[in-house]
Amino acid sequence: MDRRESAFPGLGAILQPITSGAISETDVLGDLDDLASGSAQGRASPSDITFFTNAGGGHLDLMTWEAVFKQLGTKFG
Question: Is pTM, for the whole model, over 0.85?
C-alpha cells in the first residue's frame, strides 16, 4: 500500500481480504515508504506474493505500473 495510515481505515482493496479472513493486518509487512527505505523487505523468492494498492488517485497506479514495467524491461505505452 502507499501509506498504511490511509489504507486500513477505509481502503476496500485491503479490507476485503482482511474481513474475509484470507489475511490479517499483521500479514501486511510494510507500505511503499517502508519498501523504498529498506525497512521492509521486498520479495525474497519467486513464490512470494506482492500486493500493492494505493489510496490516492489513478495517476499513482500509472506511475507504479510504469516503474514495474521498466524493471521488467517491458516498454510501457
Answer: no
- Per-position b or e across 6-21, b if 16+ CB within 10 A of its CB: ebeeebeebeeeeeee
3-state SS, residue 34: helix
First to last CA, the chain: 24
- What are the grid coordinates assigned to 14, written together? 485491503
Reference 56, options 24, 32, 26; nearest CA is 32
> What is the per-residue pLDDT across 53-71, written as a single tens digit (0 to 9) for each?
767 677 777 888 888 888 8
**Residue keyed to cell 489475511:** 23
C-alpha cell at 1: 500500500
SS3 content of the chain, % helix, strand, coil (to 5): 50, 0, 50
The predicted-structure confidence for 7-21, as pLDDT tens digits, reads as follows 777 666 788 888 899
